[in-house]
Amino acid sequence: MDFKNLRRVYPWAIALGAVLSGTIVQAKIVTYSFADKTRNSALIVVGKVTKLNENSVTLSVQRTLKGKAPSAEIEIPWNKQGNIEWAPVKYKLGDNVFVFANETNGKLQPMGLGAQGAEPVNDDAATQYESSVKKIQKYDAAQSPSEKAKIVAEMLQGSPVDQRTALVDILYLDTKRDRVPSASLVPHVLRLAKGKDRATAVPAVQVLGRIGDKAEVPELIELLDSPDGHVAQTASRVLRDLTQNKSDVSPQETPEKRREAKAKWREWWKQNKDKVKLRK
Predict the structure, then answer these.
(1) Fewest CB within 10 A of the end CB: N or C in the chain?
(2) What is the pTM of this model?
(3) Nearest Cα to 98, choosing from 139, 131, 71, 53?
(4) Beta-carbon contacts of residue 175 (< 8 Å; ≥ 6 apart)
(5) Where are the alpha helices (DSSP H) in 61-185?
């Protein structure tokens, strides 16, 4: 399965090996970020399940956020069996479904596998998703970098998790392209990197690496003993890539080992900060 327009690390490709009937099979799973789906889908709608068909689900279109629905009711494919790549999506009559879709051969095809492009949601989640889509669209429509930075700052403060995650994803893309002033956003991104939600903390650390300012290095070093091993490992890799110091921290390391790694990094940075040229 070939997915195009994957524009960052965040849509992961995970190779899984499975032994089936004595044969090793590889499955490639590709996930899209919320920002990818908002930007790359031709149609975004909120629908309500009105009919469960054998291989599809019929939705009554409640609201259209992007594109134009072909009719008051749309039909999306439904794989009820599931497979090695993804678990089946469970639909019930009356469910709200948030749909990101493109048209292929005259039929609507949700983006990604499973619930990525057609996700059953409750009313609160649907409202949050709508808000996130509209904010991303507002950001993309902004003309100047300063205007974009203002929108991002608003979104990173007190927004739902999915909205913050989407914005961190956008920042990962756009800070590298100098589309948004990054210096003013560092405090907000740092707050997310230090937060308890891994879904935003890990990509926020990656964004700090994209910004690549020496002032952030001590903050990244402090994250090496984060209670979340994945955040600590991401901070370690970002530091390694920025400075070319090959030291690394594994998420399986004990808290004591992480503290030792942090102390070594502090000392190394103290001795080398004036002569190291960061690689962005």
Answers:
(1) N
(2) 0.69
(3) 131
(4) 182, 207, 210, 211
(5) 123-141, 145-156, 161-174
